[in-house]
Every structure is written in C-alpha cells, then in structure tokens.
Amino acid sequence: MSLHLVSVVNSTSLIHPGFSLMNFDGDVFLFGQKGWPKRACPTGVFNVRYKQGELKLRPVSFCNDSCYLPPLRCPAVTQLAPEKPESCETEQYFIHGGKTPNNELSDRLYIMSLESRGCNKKVTLQCVEKELMGDIPEARYGHTINMVYSHGKKACVLFGGRSYMPPGQRTTENWNSMTDCSPHVYLIDLDFGCCTSYTLQELTDGQSFHVSLSRKDSVYFLGGHTLASNSRPPRLFRLRVELLLGSPALSCEILPYGLSLTSAIVTRLGPDYEFVIVGGYTSESHKRFECNTVVLDDSGIHIMTRETPEWTGEIRQSKTWFGGSMGEGSVLMGVPAEGRQALSESNYFYIVKLRQEEELGQTCSQESTDQEQEDSVPLEDSEEFYFNREPDELQDDDVDDDTYNEEDEEDESQTGYWVKCCLRCQVDINTWVPNYSTELNKPAMIFCSKGEEGHWVHALCMDLSEDLLVCLSQENTKYFCMDHMEVVQGLQTPPQKLLPVKHPPMKNQHRKVPVKLKMSPAKKSFIRRLFE
C-alpha cells in the first residue's frame, strides 16, 4: 500500500466532498461536481485521467436520448456488471437520491451506461431515468444501494439515509434540519420499477453513511451514524434476499465483530469478492486511520486488519477528508488545504494504491509492448486507414485540447443561454431546472425580431406554453417579446376608415305585379253606386 500526492491540473474547485466515481472498462468518471454545470461541460460528468502524477478532468457528453442529470452529492451508487465476462450485457451504474446544489433532495433513480467510445478515448455516456412505482422511497442522501442475485433474478436493495423532516413538522426554525429515514428495506424490481418496502425487527434504528457490501443474495451493512442518538455503534448486519416466484423473502441477522465507522471509502480488488475499507470517521472529531480487508464467501464475511499507508502531516492534521474508489485497488482522497491562503488550490489530493506489485508488473509489460511497437516498421501516411472515425477524433491522445478548464469559462450570466433577457427574467444559472420537455441542460429560448439585429429571450420568462413554443419554432413567423409587442403594434399604420358600401335590393324580374286601371273620379263613383 502506497500514498502518492497528485496535482490537479484543472478545475480543482469542482471536486468537493460528496462526489462519486464510476469506472467503465478502466475509465474513471467523476460525478457530482460543485455547483451547477456550465456550458463547457453541461452534463456535469468528467473523465478523470491520471498520468505522471497529474490529474486532469475531461468533459463527457451524453447521447441524444439521455435525460437531464443534476449534480448530486452523497447519492447511493452501485454497479451492475455482467454476470459473465463473455456476455453481451452492458455495464451499468445505478444512482439514487442525493443532494443538489440548492440543497434539494432527489428521489429519482438514474441508470448510467457507456454508449460509445471514440478512437482517441472520447467517451459518450447514456443516462436514463427509471420510473418507480409502488412504495417509492422518499428523497434522501447518505444511503446505500446494492445488487442481489437469487434464483436467476436480480433486484436492488436500498437502505438507510437522511432526509428533511416531514412537511407537517417542518417549520422556519428547523427548515434545514435532517432526520434519519425509517429503517425500512426497499426492494426495487429493475424490470418494471416496482418498489416494495419491508420492515425487519432486527433493524430498529435508522442509519446513514454506512458501508454496504453484497455477494449473490446477501447484503452486509457495517457501521453507520444515527442522528437520534448521535452515535456510531460497531454494527454488522447480514440481509438475505430470496427472489422467490411468488413474493420475495427477506431475513436479517445480527453478526458480531462489527466496525464503528462512517463515510468510509470501499474499493474492490479484482473480480473476487475482496474489498478494502479506507478512511472514514469514528466520531465527529476523529478520523479513522485504520484499513481493513473484507472477504465475502459462501461461509459469510471475514474482516481483517490491513497495513496502512504512511499518512502525511496534512492528512493527520486536517479535520475532514473525502474521496472515492477509482477501481482496481486505487482510491482518490482529498483533504482541505486549511490555513494555506497562499495556495491557489483549496484541497490536497492523494491516490492510495493497494496493488502496487501488480501495477509494476503491468507497467513492465506495457513497456515491453511499447518497445516492440517502436521496433516495428512504421506505416507511411498513405498506408494508414481510419474507419468510422470523426475528424475531431484524429488527434494525438497526449494533446488535451478538450480538457476542461474553469478559467476558460465565459461569464454566462451576461452571455449565451444565461443572459438576463428582460427585467422580469426568472432564469438563474444556479437555480435553473428544466421546465419544457425539449430542455436538457439549457433553457429554451426564442428570438425576438425587434430592431435590425433582434435579441433572444427565455420562453419561460415570456410565459409561453410548450405547444406554442413548438409551433413558433416550426413555423416561419416573426415573434415579438412582451417588452416590444406594444411598440411594434404602435408602429403599425392605422387602418383607414372606409364608408360602408350600400347594396340596394335588386328587383325581381319575374314578380307578378297587379293590374291597375286608371279611372276618373266620376267613373269610380258610378261603379261604386252600381255595386251598391
């Protein structure tokens, strides 16, 4: 076990406590950045590249059919790996809950998978939200989620965490106060998204920031913190899940020799069920400098003390530390640079390597392979062929032109999608959430045709419905915002007042007119006397 100090080349402020790491085929991805994503990396997911003692963050894009994924701190993350290496199943990560930069808690379940990989290691991910039904777990953070396999089926087990007080008990004084979630075990069916809640008599107190390890049909819970008693008892539970044909059967067993820890980092060593627990806390003011090896097999769980690295003075003197597992026996750790205002970086970062001997063997093998490639005859330019490669992928892998640099970010409060479009503008880069179904990571905008150049305004600020927004985007019609609508109407030429056209009724040519006889008054008097 060795400890190496690394320097983060770019965007050190994005790595903060509560982030998560995912590993797809050896590529490490950071999720849960500080603050809301910006234009240079709208997904908020970065590819972490470690080379020659330097850590670089490269922005990662999502495919077109992905959903919006907010940056979540302290979510529950688990990996769904193919049961057999030769199978065609896609490696996936399940992300549930977490806290947004606005301190809002999430109750959604996201599925992250690898969509495609470019020829120069450019990766595209896919993020899909899984719709849940039934006994949906409440919004929470600091909990765990694990995969269980039984009778040819698989499911997710969710347990623990913290949440805000219920709406009826939440007042102005305790608005941000947290409470332990109920000690219920949630079983999530991955095919249909059905959630079922179970109550076990062995689980009486809620716990959060604990460690959970799973193998086949068993899940082991170690440590954890209980807010009600403000304690970290040395707990160890074994939860067994049998996915029977009718209804699942759950049983819990309390095991001895538990561990007192919270917020520890767990990394897996190889394909076997061998794990290493690093870091964490034993109390609010004491960090846990011990390391343990945990082995899971058919007989149960085995916890052994492991050699610890030589912790530096910065690590021992710091009050807090944080980190995540990079996979293959490596852990990324960060400690605040307390009392060092002269430093531009706010944190120190270290990489703890737990498999140094194997890594040296891999390095020697890689060096011999490189030597064999150098001895081979190079191809001429005309003999090099590239199939299914984009022009931007034909770049040297050592040239990090697309490496994310926070200093290159524009002030998006004045330009682009985050401009203040009017006096009533409601869009804020720090609090914006999607409102229309067409929005992913940027607010919908519409062009106002006032003036020669015009300007862009947010559809939300103009109170446009989604149907009207789609209609205006498809039709070739001019649109004027609320501020310029009256001005444009005033510039229009008033309509002329025209006299109504009189249409006299036309005489009917076939109308029968009664015959009128012209008689003198004397003759009329004679005829009247004649009839009388």
Characterise this structure:
With 532 residues, the chain is mainly beta. The protein is built from five helices and 32 strands. The chain is elongated, with a radius of gyration of 36 Å.
Give the arrangement of secondary structure elements.
Layout: E1 2-8, E2 20-24, E3 27-31, E4 45-51, E5 54-59, E6 61-62, E7 76-80, E8 92-96, E9 109-117, E10 123-130, E11 133-134, E12 144-150, E13 153-159, E14 162-164, E15 178-180, E16 184-189, E17 194-199, E18 211-215, E19 218-222, E20 235-242, E21 249-259, E22 265-268, E23 274-278, E24 281-283, E25 286-287, E26 291-297, E27 300-306, H1 313-317, E28 322-327, E29 330-336, E30 347-353, H2 356-375, E31 445-448, E32 455-458, H3 466-474, H4 482-491, H5 521-531
Parallel strand pairs: 1-5, 6-10, 11-17
Antiparallel strand pairs: 1-30, 2-3, 3-4, 4-5, 7-8, 8-9, 9-10, 12-13, 13-16, 14-15, 16-17, 18-19, 19-20, 20-21, 22-23, 23-26, 24-25, 26-27, 28-29, 29-30, 31-32
Question: How would you describe this structure in keywords?
Answer:
mainly beta, 33% strand, 5-stranded mixed beta sheet, 532 residues, 5 helices, 8-stranded mixed beta sheet, single chain, 10% helix
Distance between the termini: 144 Å
Please estimate the helix content.
Answer: 10-25%
Strand order of the largest sheet: 2-3-4-5-1-30-29-28
Rg value: 36 Å
Subcellular location: Nucleus
InterPro entries: Gal_Oxase/kelch_b-propeller (IPR011043), Kelch-typ_b-propeller (IPR015915), RAG2 (IPR004321), RAG2_PHD (IPR025162), Znf_FYVE_PHD (IPR011011)
Protein name: V(D)J recombination-activating protein 2
Biased composition (Acidic residues): 369-380, 393-412
